[in-house]
Specification:
two-stranded parallel sheet, Ferritin
């Protein structure tokens, strides 16, 4: 059950109308790293979670993300307030109105005209929000790692938005939202590392032949070694022959068909086979002949066509239009 409190989690103060900034902030309203995506991600995870501690944490953070959605949506609406009134009431001349909502160099005029300045569920480029942003897989260790990364991405977006405004009230509110991403990262990490074991995700172990193998597939200037491929942690495989058919097989595709399936497949192969000894005339070659006035359109190409036709015993170069 949810109950709404009319007081925001953080007080929002906006100094002046700024439709361009409002449009940028939509990234955290209806974008892939935004608050709605986070709320839906953690809420659905909470519903399926069997561990009571993680379930409670996920529901708490999901609900808080909804409060952040309210904060960011309120900022968007406040930044659009003056422009929304002007465009709705038609108090400006047409040219002046257009300049006032499109002078920020982004698509703010789209959100002003299409959505009336309200906080639409789109990102800053106008892309509609969609459930494809939710990447939960149903395994707690995998989902918690994804959640940590999601909070990190959201923090980076908030940093960029803070750098895009000089409005002190907006900066403060965005700073609060950015800081809460840090807090959530910590909670998710604590929950992840309270599981023993938590790596690798899932139940099945990896094949020991390949679990600690590092294939140096991109070779040349810039090759580097570190803990991600050190001899202490990995078997470093750089020889090309050792990178192919690592299972000990031929490395070629193998398929076993039933006799009747094999017979049909062989008939198809025979029917669609190319003749390597053929040299068919092509449409491109037909267009390489002489021009209507007798001059060659492409002397080199025309000679090649004539030679090819001679080999086939065909007619000489023909005129084309």
């Amino acid at each position: 059950m949810f109950a709404h409190n009319k007081r925001l989690q953080y007080t929002v103060r906006v100094n002046e109308t700024n439709p361009g900034l409002a449009n940028l902030l939509l990234e955290q309203f209806g974008g892939p790293q935004g608050e709605l995506a986070a709320a839906c991600r953690y809420f659905t995870q909470a519903l399926a979670e069997d561990d009571p501690g993680r379930k409670d944490m996920l529901m708490d953070i999901a609900t808080e993300e909804l409060s952040h959605l309210e904060v960011i949506g309120t900022i968007v609406a406040m930044l659009n307030k003056g422009a929304k009134g002007r465009i709705s009431e038609g108090v400006d001349e047409e040219a002046e109105m257009y300049r006032s909502i499109s002078g920020a160099g982004n698509d703010s005029h789209v959100t002003q005209v299409l959505y009336g300045g309200g906080p639409a569920l789109i990102n800053s480029g106008g892309q509609l929000w969609n459930a494809g942003y939710i990447d939960s897989i149903g395994d707690p260790s995998a989902d918690l790692r994804s959640n940590i990364a999601a909070e990190a991405r959201a923090k980076i977006i908030y940093e960029r938005l803070i750098n895009a405004t000089d409005d002190p009230g907006v900066k403060e509110a965005l700073g609060f939202l950015m800081t809460r991403e840090i807090a959530h990262q910590q909670s998710f990490e604590k929950a992840l590392y309270s599981m023993h074991p938590n790596f690798p995700p899932g139940k099945l172990p990896g094949d020991p032949r390949f679990t600690n193998a590092y294939f140096n597939m991109s070779q040349g200037e810039g090759d580097a070694r570190g803990p991600w491929n050190s001899d202490d942690n990995f078997q470093y495989i750089t020889e090309r022959e050792e990178q192919m058919a690592v299972d000990g097989g031929t490395g070629l595709p193998e398929i076993r068909l039933k006799p009747d399936e094999l017979a049909v497949a062989q008939r198809l192969i025979a029917r669609t086979a190319s003749d390597p000894a053929s040299d068919p005339m092509t449409g491109a070659e037909l267009g390489m002949g002489t021009m209507e006035d007798g001059t060659p359109g492409d002397p080199t190409a025309a000679q090649a066509v004539s030679a090819a036709r001679s080999r086939r015993g065909g007619p000489g170069t023909s005129k084309t239009h």
